[in-house]
Batch of 4 targets.
Target 1
Amino acid sequence: MARVICIVNQKGGTGKTTTAINVSARLANKGYRTLLIDIEPQANASLALGVDIHALKKTMYDVLLEEEVELDDIIIGTTTENLMLAPTHVDLANTDINLADKTDKQFRLKNKITKMRAKFDYILIDCPPSLSLLPLNALTASKEVIIPLQADYLSLEGLEQLISTIDKVRDKLNSELKILGILFCIVDRRMKMTTQSIDIVKEDFNKLVFDTQMRLCVKLKEAATFGQSIFEYAPKSKGAEDYGKLTEEITAGEENV
């Protein structure tokens, strides 16, 4: 049965989608059957994997809104062997309005994922930068959460709010939910603020902070522009090295999951 992991932060620009794409790709490279689910209305993960979202007949919008549409109906392959994608479209931005009167509105994604867990080893969910109904669905459907975080004070301000939301979801909707790790992204140690911010988080959440930190790497942005993971685009880059180490941390804990 697949480990279901969502990548969540209500703040944009934290490296969330980059993490979702490259961890998924690395897992696939290691031979794990991997599914990346894109529920970000900007469709950044889908676009960064080279998908023409306007040519898609059905997307995650249809999966979440239509009872008869399953994940199997929309999943497509990628240029990475073992990596499948459940793409999205900008229409997904209307999800909160369209699901508002549904009694199972927090469980729509979980219900669809449950039917697919036997087909994959890992299912990763890339969420929008908000705490709306879409990330709520992801938190309800997942067993584990990765929180990407920039090493600056503004990012730290929202961390407690996010952890509070995760605690509430655990109490009311998903008792199995746990934080897999807090991941520092776009780390530039030339800045004094970077070290100070990391130290603050480690003081409060030491055991929850990943050992691996994602160093600032221009190649990561370039890879997305070319519709590739960092392992395809620049396999010898700092970005590939760091996401490789992070994936080792994630898979090393499998026996405890």
Target 2
Amino acid sequence: MKVFVIGGGPAGIMAAIYAAKGGAEVTLLERNDKIGKKLFITGKGRCNITNLSDHDNYLKNIVSNPKFALRALKTMSPQGLIQFFNDSGLPIKIERGNRVFPLSDKSSDVIKVLNKLLENSGVKVFYNQKVVDFTVENNKINQIITEKQVFYPDKAILAIGGKSYASTGSDGIGYALARKCGHSIIPLKPALVPLICDKCYDAFCQAASISELPPLQGLSLRNITASIIDENDKKLFEEFGELMFTHNGMSGPVILTLSSKINRMDCSKLKIKLDLKPALDYKMLDNRLLRDFGEKKE
């Protein structure tokens, strides 16, 4: 059986390896001149491979339709993925928050291992093959059309990515191809993105009773709580962790997580509330400030 995998990212690579292990004749079509282009930049170039959490914790952190991921997690758990890379010769380390990285802190080492696994599995990789169309008959893809040639699969696996990073190949064409195969596509919304907050600094000045704030761009704060408040002052979501101010709003892990929870809501009716010292109540904070001022005086 001739199986064609479209897309040389993590999903496509793993699909190709395991299809070849199952006995198929596998061809991987990649639009770039190398595989794993987005994988190369993930984790700031260190490649955050997975998180060593149990199923319940994973599902709790999936914003919508967590059951969709359950089968994948049962097929290969985080522990299984770590074992997969260890068996493939890639040393792994576990950092704070159960985050898993290659021991070398180099995403290129992860890609080298995956390249070797593709080669050892007998997968043929065709580079610079941007898929532009399918022909579909009787719910079956019988032609894959690239900018260079036409391929004739017995089976096809679409792992072409979303629309998150066009320069790596994720430019949204996968949605059009999936729609052609009969899939319905939910309207796209940005997620895991910074928040633009035009009036944030004005609100900060008002809260602090000052006329102007010093430049905040690039300022990072740790161990803060950020909450999303609705028009009735009801708390909808809350995250604890690190926040960073940008030139026009806020970013950082807590903001990115919150953005994915409100991206389908009317944001004009929402407010964001920051607690810079969530471990302290007002009395404790007042005492802490008085103590600090006293130390500065001395």
Target 3
Amino acid sequence: MKILDEKKIKNSLEGRIRDDIDSGRVGGASVLVKQEGEIVYSGCFGLADHNKPLGESAIFRLASLTKPITAAAILKQVDRGLVSIFDPLEKFIPEYAEMDIGALGEDGKTVITGKASEKIKIVHLLNHTSGVGSSLLGDKLFAELKSDERVDLKSIARAYANRPLAFEPGSMTVYSPLIAFDLLARVVEITSGEAYDKFLKKEIFEPLGMVDTTFVPTEDQWGRMVCIHNFDGEKSDFLPLDRAHTMSDLPLTYFCGGASLVSTVSDYSNFAEMLLADGKKDGEQLISRELIKQMQTPSVDDKIMPGPQKWGLGVRVITSEDYTHLPVGAYGWSGAYGAHMWVDPKNKITAVYMKNSLYDGGAGALTAVNFEDDIYF
């Protein structure tokens, strides 16, 4: 097992983050790294807005770091025998029984190219092989949704049942930024009989002590929210605090399973530690060990996803040493505003990096890759 060097991490990481802040590339960042459950390094840097220093209780918009939490939620329902990852989506939402496949025509309009022969399964939603909300077609269809079609998970699920898929389910993997995980969240609502936010609070957030993770911040939490930062190559600036949304322009009534949670670095670390402990927290098995192992096991092959990274269930998994920044077996994900997390079962490490920025976010962000390198090298 690789033992992390606290002093080396401190020197490398702090120097890198301060350079990012001094250059204007990052407004503020928070970091928490643990090994075998013990804090190896934690730190807060920069500002939360134009004037306020970023502190340990700062709250960040998770964007796609919401997805691993939604994956955990659906796995809880699998544990209860209410869902199988191989169930067809139509079992829970009958409107998805018959789906068209579409494409963008030369004029930019949607063209129906045929009928899907494969049913959308829960696993397809988890590993981005469903064709729902994927590619430029998915972006276009989402942009065309009317305001009354994206009020909540029920309205989103109904609306997308009438939109074509980007490809045959299971035939390829193309990232679904929002809709696939919205459908998973809707399945949780249907099988639990509870609104998705209430389910997460009761089943995941409260058992893990994630007191500041939510879709709808309180007044106190809004007061600790980090403003969105931007950098255009010359000017570094913070945008005004947007209290009407936690993700883009999505309404607060829409508990987007792919992108709308907010959280703190310590809360998300608690979630990562539960994954590292094979689903256990303080002696309680929140999710079965078998399902956590399945979550971190590649569920697609080289034929549809070549390269050193593969989708597990709601997380990317490092499958080859050709990915030089993390060890094989590490898994996690990132968010469009720059948050990043991974779990390393072999070396008993969890690492969380939080920032909220329109500059350099999402999978492959330079800040995320640098963070990985600073921890291991």
Target 4
Amino acid sequence: MTDAATGAGRISEVFARSAAERRAALIGYLPAGFPTVDGAIEAARAMAAGGADLIEIGLPYSDPLMDGPVIQEAVHQALTRGAHVTDVLRTVTAVAETGVPALVMTYWNPIDHYGVESFAADLAAAGGSGLITPDLTPEEAGPWLGAAAKHDLDPVFLVAPSSSDERIALITSACRGFVYAASVMGITGARQSVGAAAAGLVARVRQHTDLPVAVGLGVSTGVQAAEVAGFADGVIVGSAFVRCLLDAGDDRSAGLAAISALTADLAAGVRAASR
């Protein structure tokens, strides 16, 4: 069982603190093992230092159906270098040690292969606070929900603009911590504008749950973060962070500087949209 200081309650505390500050929470994503295991840890720590409230650590997977080309390339490089679940857990520990709660975002097959109970126990032992599973449906999530409850981990599921009200009710009933609202239909990636359906989706979700609603898919600037923070409880940014490291190539210092600058811009954005 994980300690209360690093368990699922940490996520609720983050959203409660952000709400008290009349702002949205900033949630950043990076895949473990990219550009290296240690490089990902350094980048995640820079993100934490720059103002991220929660950090998602991606588990590299060979068939990332939801991910766009930026994250696909990073994950490919991580897998080529031999990234493993143990590296994900090590990265989670490094993030949790900063005081920022860490979640793992992963497709379900690697967890099923690892063993649901074993993964839940190891994630909790690593200091993780929860798991985001984009391709796991609530109907098939029984074993995971049981393991998550046993080890005090928050299960986070996704809703989309195409989700019916009945579907949203089912999905949100299985969530803890927050609900992940995909702002657009399609793969991940930074966009020039956030999906127009995002605000409507958040409003629909709030009809079925009191959990915080965080919006992801497309945010890449402080201006966009402020826009989303005006109607959502959390702003999720992934591809833009990964792009910082891809563009830097082998220049580790440049990559970390870019991560820090982007985090600061996004953190200012969520604070600019005070509510």
